[in-house]
Amino acid sequence: MNAAADLAERLARVRARMRARGLNLLIIYFNGQHTMLRFNPLLYLTDFKTLGPAFLFVPGEGEPALLISPDWDLPRALEMVPFATVRSVVPPLLARAAANIAKALPRPLAIAGREHMTAGFAQEFLLLIDGDAGDAGDLVDGLAATRTEIELERVGRAAAIADAGFAALRDAARVGMREHELAAEVEHAMQCAGSEDNYGLLGAGSHNLAVRAPTDRRIEAGDLIIGEITPCYRGYFAQLCRTLVLGTPSELQLSKYDLLIRAQEEGLRAALPGRSSRDIAQAINAVIAAAGYAEYCRQPYMRTRGHGLGFGGVVPHDVNEGEGETLAPAMTLVIHPNQYIPETGYMMLGDTVVIEAQGPRLLTATPRRLYWKPA
Fold this sequence. Notes:
This protein has ten helices and 19 strands. By secondary structure, the chain is of the alpha+beta class.
Protein backbone atom coordinates (compact mmCIF):
# COMPACT_ATOMS: atom_id res chain seq x y z
CA MET A 1 0.00 0.00 0.00
CA ASN A 2 1.33 3.46 -0.89
CA ALA A 3 1.14 6.50 1.36
CA ALA A 4 -1.88 8.04 -0.38
CA ALA A 5 -3.88 4.82 -0.10
CA ASP A 6 -2.85 4.43 3.52
CA LEU A 7 -4.05 7.95 4.32
CA ALA A 8 -7.33 7.29 2.51
CA GLU A 9 -7.83 4.18 4.62
CA ARG A 10 -7.32 6.17 7.83
CA LEU A 11 -9.95 8.67 6.69
CA ALA A 12 -12.34 5.83 5.80
CA ARG A 13 -12.00 4.38 9.29
CA VAL A 14 -12.80 7.76 10.82
CA ARG A 15 -15.85 8.16 8.60
CA ALA A 16 -17.10 4.74 9.64
CA ARG A 17 -16.96 5.91 13.25
CA MET A 18 -18.70 9.15 12.30
CA ARG A 19 -21.59 7.21 10.76
CA ALA A 20 -21.86 5.05 13.87
CA ARG A 21 -22.28 8.23 15.94
CA GLY A 22 -24.66 9.91 13.50
CA LEU A 23 -22.20 12.66 12.57
CA ASN A 24 -22.15 14.39 9.19
CA LEU A 25 -19.13 16.55 9.96
CA LEU A 26 -16.01 16.17 12.07
CA ILE A 27 -14.01 19.33 12.76
CA ILE A 28 -10.45 18.66 13.89
CA TYR A 29 -8.33 21.39 15.46
CA PHE A 30 -4.65 21.38 16.38
CA ASN A 31 -2.66 24.29 17.79
CA GLY A 32 0.62 23.53 16.02
CA GLN A 33 2.54 22.73 19.22
CA HIS A 34 3.99 19.33 18.34
CA THR A 35 5.33 17.04 21.05
CA MET A 36 6.08 13.37 21.56
CA LEU A 37 3.58 13.26 24.43
CA ARG A 38 0.55 14.67 22.59
CA PHE A 39 -1.50 12.98 19.91
CA ASN A 40 -2.06 15.15 16.83
CA PRO A 41 -5.30 14.06 15.07
CA LEU A 42 -4.85 16.59 12.28
CA LEU A 43 -1.43 15.23 11.34
CA TYR A 44 -2.79 11.68 11.55
CA LEU A 45 -5.43 12.42 8.88
CA THR A 46 -3.39 14.68 6.59
CA ASP A 47 0.26 13.56 6.83
CA PHE A 48 0.98 17.29 7.12
CA LYS A 49 2.72 18.90 10.09
CA THR A 50 1.37 22.42 10.44
CA LEU A 51 3.52 25.33 11.54
CA GLY A 52 0.64 27.02 13.34
CA PRO A 53 -2.96 26.41 14.43
CA ALA A 54 -5.09 24.67 11.81
CA PHE A 55 -8.48 23.07 11.14
CA LEU A 56 -9.40 19.95 9.21
CA PHE A 57 -13.01 19.44 8.10
CA VAL A 58 -14.05 15.85 7.42
CA PRO A 59 -17.58 15.56 6.00
CA GLY A 60 -19.39 12.24 6.00
CA GLU A 61 -19.15 12.28 2.22
CA GLY A 62 -16.94 14.24 -0.12
CA GLU A 63 -13.45 15.68 0.07
CA PRO A 64 -11.95 16.92 3.35
CA ALA A 65 -10.87 20.57 3.58
CA LEU A 66 -7.80 21.91 5.35
CA LEU A 67 -7.41 25.43 6.73
CA ILE A 68 -3.93 26.33 7.99
CA SER A 69 -2.01 29.23 9.43
CA PRO A 70 0.22 31.13 8.92
CA ASP A 71 -0.89 32.18 5.45
CA TRP A 72 2.62 32.09 3.96
CA ASP A 73 2.83 28.31 4.53
CA LEU A 74 0.22 27.63 1.84
CA PRO A 75 2.65 26.58 -0.95
CA ARG A 76 4.08 23.78 1.22
CA ALA A 77 0.60 22.59 2.14
CA LEU A 78 -0.55 22.58 -1.49
CA GLU A 79 2.46 20.48 -2.40
CA MET A 80 2.04 17.92 0.37
CA VAL A 81 -1.69 17.60 1.09
CA PRO A 82 -3.75 15.53 -1.39
CA PHE A 83 -7.06 17.35 -0.75
CA ALA A 84 -8.70 19.59 -3.33
CA THR A 85 -9.47 22.29 -0.76
CA VAL A 86 -6.47 23.67 1.09
CA ARG A 87 -6.61 27.25 2.31
CA SER A 88 -4.55 29.49 4.54
CA VAL A 89 -5.19 32.53 6.70
CA VAL A 90 -3.33 34.76 9.14
CA PRO A 91 -3.73 33.42 12.71
CA PRO A 92 -6.01 36.21 14.04
CA LEU A 93 -8.62 35.38 11.37
CA LEU A 94 -8.46 31.60 11.82
CA ALA A 95 -11.59 31.19 13.97
CA ARG A 96 -13.79 33.25 11.65
CA ALA A 97 -12.47 31.59 8.49
CA ALA A 98 -13.02 28.14 10.03
CA ALA A 99 -16.56 29.04 11.09
CA ASN A 100 -17.39 30.17 7.56
CA ILE A 101 -16.27 26.81 6.18
CA ALA A 102 -18.18 24.91 8.86
CA LYS A 103 -21.44 26.77 8.18
CA ALA A 104 -21.42 25.54 4.58
CA LEU A 105 -21.06 21.88 5.58
CA PRO A 106 -23.73 19.42 6.78
CA ARG A 107 -24.64 18.83 10.41
CA PRO A 108 -24.73 17.41 13.07
CA LEU A 109 -21.06 18.05 13.80
CA ALA A 110 -18.53 17.32 16.50
CA ILE A 111 -15.08 18.66 17.34
CA ALA A 112 -11.86 16.75 17.99
CA GLY A 113 -8.95 18.63 19.51
CA ARG A 114 -10.95 21.05 21.64
CA GLU A 115 -8.42 20.47 24.44
CA HIS A 116 -5.79 22.14 22.24
CA MET A 117 -7.80 25.40 22.06
CA THR A 118 -7.31 28.23 24.51
CA ALA A 119 -10.46 29.15 26.41
CA GLY A 120 -10.80 32.42 24.51
CA PHE A 121 -10.32 30.83 21.10
CA ALA A 122 -12.82 28.06 21.90
CA GLN A 123 -15.43 30.55 23.02
CA GLU A 124 -14.97 32.66 19.90
CA PHE A 125 -15.16 29.71 17.53
CA LEU A 126 -18.18 28.06 19.15
CA LEU A 127 -20.11 31.33 19.00
CA LEU A 128 -19.23 31.80 15.35
CA ILE A 129 -20.37 28.35 14.21
CA ASP A 130 -23.75 29.14 15.75
CA GLY A 131 -24.77 25.71 16.93
CA ASP A 132 -24.15 22.82 19.25
CA ALA A 133 -20.93 20.91 18.69
CA GLY A 134 -20.39 17.58 20.38
CA ASP A 135 -17.03 16.41 21.64
CA ALA A 136 -15.34 13.77 19.49
CA GLY A 137 -11.92 13.83 21.10
CA ASP A 138 -11.84 10.04 21.32
CA LEU A 139 -13.02 9.40 17.78
CA VAL A 140 -9.64 9.66 16.06
CA ASP A 141 -7.11 8.75 18.73
CA GLY A 142 -8.85 5.44 19.41
CA LEU A 143 -8.05 4.44 15.84
CA ALA A 144 -4.42 5.51 16.20
CA ALA A 145 -3.64 2.93 18.87
CA THR A 146 -2.23 0.57 16.23
CA ARG A 147 -0.02 1.22 13.24
CA THR A 148 -0.74 0.60 9.58
CA GLU A 149 1.94 -0.82 7.29
CA ILE A 150 3.01 2.63 6.14
CA GLU A 151 3.04 3.92 9.71
CA LEU A 152 5.20 1.00 10.83
CA GLU A 153 7.66 1.83 8.06
CA ARG A 154 7.90 5.36 9.41
CA VAL A 155 8.37 4.24 13.02
CA GLY A 156 11.01 1.81 11.77
CA ARG A 157 12.79 4.63 9.98
CA ALA A 158 12.70 6.71 13.16
CA ALA A 159 14.15 3.74 15.08
CA ALA A 160 17.04 3.49 12.62
CA ILE A 161 17.66 7.21 13.08
CA ALA A 162 17.74 6.70 16.86
CA ASP A 163 20.36 3.98 16.37
CA ALA A 164 22.40 6.44 14.30
CA GLY A 165 22.04 9.01 17.08
CA PHE A 166 23.49 6.71 19.71
CA ALA A 167 26.30 5.67 17.37
CA ALA A 168 27.16 9.35 17.05
CA LEU A 169 27.10 9.68 20.84
CA ARG A 170 29.56 6.80 21.22
CA ASP A 171 31.89 8.22 18.59
CA ALA A 172 31.83 11.82 19.78
CA ALA A 173 31.90 11.45 23.59
CA ARG A 174 35.18 12.62 25.09
CA VAL A 175 36.53 14.08 28.29
CA GLY A 176 36.21 17.85 28.44
CA MET A 177 33.35 18.37 26.01
CA ARG A 178 30.17 19.89 27.38
CA GLU A 179 26.98 17.87 27.60
CA HIS A 180 25.17 20.17 25.18
CA GLU A 181 28.04 19.79 22.69
CA LEU A 182 27.58 16.03 22.77
CA ALA A 183 23.82 16.45 22.38
CA ALA A 184 24.50 18.63 19.34
CA GLU A 185 26.59 15.87 17.76
CA VAL A 186 23.68 13.44 18.28
CA GLU A 187 21.21 15.94 16.85
CA HIS A 188 23.41 16.62 13.81
CA ALA A 189 23.76 12.93 13.00
CA MET A 190 20.03 12.37 13.23
CA GLN A 191 19.16 15.43 11.17
CA CYS A 192 21.49 14.13 8.48
CA ALA A 193 19.73 10.76 8.66
CA GLY A 194 16.31 12.34 8.10
CA SER A 195 15.02 13.31 11.54
CA GLU A 196 12.68 16.27 11.62
CA ASP A 197 12.59 16.57 15.40
CA ASN A 198 14.09 15.02 18.54
CA TYR A 199 12.77 14.78 22.07
CA GLY A 200 16.21 14.24 23.51
CA LEU A 201 17.53 14.01 27.07
CA LEU A 202 21.20 13.53 27.86
CA GLY A 203 23.19 13.79 31.05
CA ALA A 204 26.53 12.66 32.45
CA GLY A 205 27.98 12.13 35.88
CA SER A 206 29.66 9.61 38.13
CA HIS A 207 26.35 9.05 39.96
CA ASN A 208 23.31 10.27 38.02
CA LEU A 209 20.04 10.74 39.88
CA ALA A 210 17.86 10.77 36.75
CA VAL A 211 17.98 11.59 33.08
CA ARG A 212 17.68 15.28 32.25
CA ALA A 213 18.25 17.89 29.61
CA PRO A 214 21.93 18.50 28.72
CA THR A 215 23.77 21.33 30.46
CA ASP A 216 27.10 23.09 30.00
CA ARG A 217 28.77 20.71 32.46
CA ARG A 218 32.03 19.28 31.10
CA ILE A 219 32.14 15.49 30.81
CA GLU A 220 34.73 13.83 33.02
CA ALA A 221 36.60 10.52 33.00
CA GLY A 222 34.50 7.82 34.65
CA ASP A 223 31.18 9.47 33.86
CA LEU A 224 28.12 7.43 32.97
CA ILE A 225 26.52 9.15 29.99
CA ILE A 226 22.81 8.38 29.87
CA GLY A 227 20.72 9.22 26.85
CA GLU A 228 17.06 9.08 25.91
CA ILE A 229 17.05 9.57 22.15
CA THR A 230 13.66 10.12 20.49
CA PRO A 231 13.82 11.22 16.85
CA CYS A 232 10.78 11.90 14.68
CA TYR A 233 10.32 10.91 11.04
CA ARG A 234 7.25 12.03 9.07
CA GLY A 235 5.48 12.68 12.36
CA TYR A 236 6.33 9.28 13.87
CA PHE A 237 8.61 8.79 16.87
CA ALA A 238 10.88 6.01 18.08
CA GLN A 239 12.95 5.95 21.25
CA LEU A 240 16.26 4.41 22.27
CA CYS A 241 17.70 4.53 25.80
CA ARG A 242 21.30 3.49 26.46
CA THR A 243 24.19 4.07 28.86
CA LEU A 244 27.85 4.73 28.01
CA VAL A 245 30.72 4.66 30.52
CA LEU A 246 33.56 7.00 29.59
CA GLY A 247 36.33 4.78 30.88
CA THR A 248 36.45 1.17 32.05
CA PRO A 249 33.24 0.01 33.75
CA SER A 250 33.47 -1.62 37.15
CA GLU A 251 32.20 -5.12 37.79
CA LEU A 252 29.47 -3.55 39.89
CA GLN A 253 28.31 -1.38 36.98
CA LEU A 254 28.34 -4.36 34.63
CA SER A 255 26.35 -6.53 37.03
CA LYS A 256 23.74 -3.86 37.72
CA TYR A 257 23.30 -3.17 34.03
CA ASP A 258 22.85 -6.89 33.50
CA LEU A 259 19.98 -6.60 35.99
CA LEU A 260 18.32 -4.05 33.69
CA ILE A 261 18.80 -6.35 30.70
CA ARG A 262 17.16 -9.27 32.53
CA ALA A 263 14.31 -7.03 33.64
CA GLN A 264 13.72 -5.84 30.10
CA GLU A 265 13.73 -9.41 28.81
CA GLU A 266 10.97 -10.29 31.26
CA GLY A 267 9.05 -7.20 30.20
CA LEU A 268 9.37 -8.22 26.56
CA ARG A 269 8.05 -11.71 27.37
CA ALA A 270 4.96 -10.12 28.88
CA ALA A 271 4.31 -7.89 25.86
CA LEU A 272 1.85 -10.15 24.03
CA PRO A 273 -1.45 -9.37 22.30
CA GLY A 274 -4.38 -9.67 24.66
CA ARG A 275 -2.35 -9.02 27.78
CA SER A 276 -2.38 -5.77 29.72
CA SER A 277 0.42 -3.24 29.50
CA ARG A 278 0.62 -3.38 33.30
CA ASP A 279 1.91 -6.96 32.95
CA ILE A 280 5.04 -5.47 31.38
CA ALA A 281 5.63 -3.20 34.38
CA GLN A 282 4.94 -6.00 36.84
CA ALA A 283 7.40 -8.30 35.08
CA ILE A 284 10.13 -5.65 35.06
CA ASN A 285 9.56 -4.63 38.65
CA ALA A 286 9.58 -8.24 39.83
CA VAL A 287 13.13 -8.75 38.58
CA ILE A 288 14.42 -5.50 40.07
CA ALA A 289 12.58 -6.05 43.35
CA ALA A 290 14.01 -9.57 43.66
CA ALA A 291 17.49 -8.00 43.52
CA GLY A 292 16.64 -5.90 46.58
CA TYR A 293 15.46 -2.69 44.94
CA ALA A 294 11.67 -2.85 45.42
CA GLU A 295 11.53 0.62 46.97
CA TYR A 296 13.29 2.05 43.91
CA CYS A 297 10.58 0.74 41.58
CA ARG A 298 8.26 3.64 42.42
CA GLN A 299 8.34 7.41 42.70
CA PRO A 300 10.51 9.39 43.10
CA TYR A 301 12.98 6.93 41.59
CA MET A 302 10.89 5.51 38.74
CA ARG A 303 7.90 6.96 36.89
CA THR A 304 7.09 4.43 34.18
CA ARG A 305 8.43 1.29 32.49
CA GLY A 306 7.56 2.53 29.04
CA HIS A 307 4.83 4.25 27.09
CA GLY A 308 2.98 4.21 23.82
CA LEU A 309 5.06 5.61 21.03
CA GLY A 310 4.99 6.04 17.31
CA PHE A 311 2.47 8.79 16.79
CA GLY A 312 2.31 10.97 19.85
CA GLY A 313 1.23 9.84 23.29
CA VAL A 314 -1.26 7.14 22.33
CA VAL A 315 -2.26 3.79 23.83
CA PRO A 316 -0.88 2.30 26.04
CA HIS A 317 0.24 5.66 27.47
CA ASP A 318 2.40 5.07 30.57
CA VAL A 319 3.35 1.46 31.32
CA ASN A 320 3.01 1.01 35.06
CA GLU A 321 1.35 -1.31 37.55
CA GLY A 322 -1.86 0.70 37.71
CA GLU A 323 -4.63 0.46 35.16
CA GLY A 324 -3.25 -0.89 31.92
CA GLU A 325 -4.35 -1.02 28.30
CA THR A 326 -4.90 -4.24 26.37
CA LEU A 327 -2.04 -4.83 23.95
CA ALA A 328 -2.93 -5.46 20.32
CA PRO A 329 -0.99 -6.44 17.20
CA ALA A 330 0.70 -3.48 15.46
CA MET A 331 0.84 -1.34 18.60
CA THR A 332 4.19 0.41 18.99
CA LEU A 333 5.66 1.35 22.34
CA VAL A 334 8.95 1.76 24.16
CA ILE A 335 9.84 -0.66 26.96
CA HIS A 336 12.50 0.82 29.21
CA PRO A 337 13.54 -0.48 32.65
CA ASN A 338 15.47 2.75 33.27
CA GLN A 339 16.42 2.58 36.91
CA TYR A 340 18.10 4.43 39.74
CA ILE A 341 20.34 2.02 41.66
CA PRO A 342 21.94 3.43 44.81
CA GLU A 343 25.34 1.80 44.20
CA THR A 344 25.73 3.02 40.61
CA GLY A 345 23.28 5.85 40.03
CA TYR A 346 20.69 6.06 37.26
CA MET A 347 21.24 3.86 34.21
CA MET A 348 19.16 3.61 31.05
CA LEU A 349 18.03 0.79 28.77
CA GLY A 350 15.05 1.04 26.44
CA ASP A 351 13.88 -0.01 22.99
CA THR A 352 10.97 0.66 20.66
CA VAL A 353 8.97 -2.46 19.82
CA VAL A 354 5.95 -3.45 17.77
CA ILE A 355 3.50 -5.94 19.27
CA GLU A 356 3.14 -9.10 17.19
CA ALA A 357 1.40 -12.44 17.73
CA GLN A 358 4.61 -14.32 18.48
CA GLY A 359 5.99 -11.60 20.74
CA PRO A 360 7.30 -8.04 20.45
CA ARG A 361 9.71 -7.23 17.65
CA LEU A 362 12.46 -4.73 18.42
CA LEU A 363 12.57 -1.86 15.94
CA THR A 364 15.69 -0.30 17.43
CA ALA A 365 18.74 -2.38 16.51
CA THR A 366 21.47 -1.11 18.88
CA PRO A 367 22.65 -4.17 20.90
CA ARG A 368 21.36 -4.24 24.47
CA ARG A 369 24.48 -3.95 26.63
CA LEU A 370 26.45 -1.48 28.69
CA TYR A 371 28.73 0.55 26.41
CA TRP A 372 32.09 2.06 27.23
CA LYS A 373 35.10 3.70 25.58
CA PRO A 374 38.50 4.82 26.84
CA ALA A 375 38.50 8.15 28.64
